[in-house]
Glycerol-3-phosphate dehydrogenase [NAD(P)+]
Amino acid sequence: MRVGIVGSGSWGTALAIVLADNAHQVEIWARRSEQADEINRNHTNEEYLPGIQLPDTIKASSKLEQVVEGKEMILFVVPSHSIRQVARQVSGYIPQEALIIHAIKGLELETHKRISEILLEELPVPLHERIAVLSGPSHAEEVSKRSPTTVVVASNSIKTAEEAQDALINQHFRVYTNPDVVGLEIGGALKNIIALGAGISDGLQFGDNAKAALMTRGLAEISRLGVYMGANPLTFSGLAGVGDLIVTCTSKHSRNWRAGNMLGQGHSLQEVLSVMGMVVEGVKTTKASYELSFQCGIEMPITQQLYQVLFENKEPRKAVEDLMGRLKTHEMEEVAHN
Ligand SMILES: NC(=O)C1=CN([C@@H]2O[C@H](COP(=O)(O)OP(=O)(O)OC[C@H]3O[C@@H](n4cnc5c(N)ncnc54)[C@H](OP(=O)(O)O)[C@@H]3O)[C@@H](O)[C@H]2O)C=CC1
Ligand SMILES: O=C(CO)COP(=O)(O)O
């Protein structure tokens, strides 16, 4: 297939490798022409995937419309804060039959919308059945080295999900399908909040019990919001739920974990973001989810404490004290009260 990948950060580039390995013709959009030149000339993307040699067949361009024009499959892999503007810019150039996959893990800050909701608003109606989301435990650094990885694609159309599965699957990259678009998007976006928390906990040297607690209770509140929004609760025990939560909370590759770790060691949010050099989606997602939790009346104590740490200068130790000192409750609140 002729594939256009919109976004040449670490994840867009790693997915370009997967697709080039599967013998697709891949063109990738880099917003800076120097970066497109580097990919075309040296077959590297040193800033985002240092030390990785890209297949020679991957082409790059800094002309956004050109990268989607005439393509049979388009992947959107830009940070969540830029997807609306980017989708709007290419909307009129995408062929009507194209398969659209987004691999973005975030929510729109101003509207709290999921990425597929933004795509439905920005892309023409004939493309709506062609939209799929890709999620799951998949650090770009490992995918680009062809380490065994499993992911999930979801779409409202099973045909679309299966086409995406066929295009992406190979012996290193195993792709499952799932009909639960909401579950995939909520699981993928909100695990970044918990990874920030896990990084803070590790930065404070709280140990393994604390991290296991954050992950387990974090999954409980992700599921609570997700189910309220229409997700299937089972999705959260799958790759896009607990799977992605594990990989993000426990890996040195995770930007969200690393950012949290620095916060736990006493650095300010501004300092942390200025040294990261890559997108830390969990910061904006914490704000969006914090607001959503009040809007929907869903209890999300970890998200609420993290919001105070990130945006109200609360001491991380005090946030942990407040989490531990909450009113006693049943572990399975929803079940216990039914
Ligand atoms: N990295 C990973 O392992 C994974 C990432 N994801 C998700 O993929 C998405 C993209 O992340 P990732 O590739 O890691 O990000 P990176 O930080 O590695 O790269 C960001 C890319 O987006 C570009 N960019 C930054 N701001 C804008 C903007 N306003 N408009 C257009 N382009 C912009 C950057 O260009 P420039 O260099 O010019 O600034 C760069 O090419 C995120 O939602 C992330 O959660 C999902 C799974 C795995
Ligand atoms: O989503 C990811 C792995 O599945 C990447 O996580 P980070 O954005 O924290 O690096």
In short: The domain at 2-179 is CATH 3.40.50.720 (Rossmann fold).
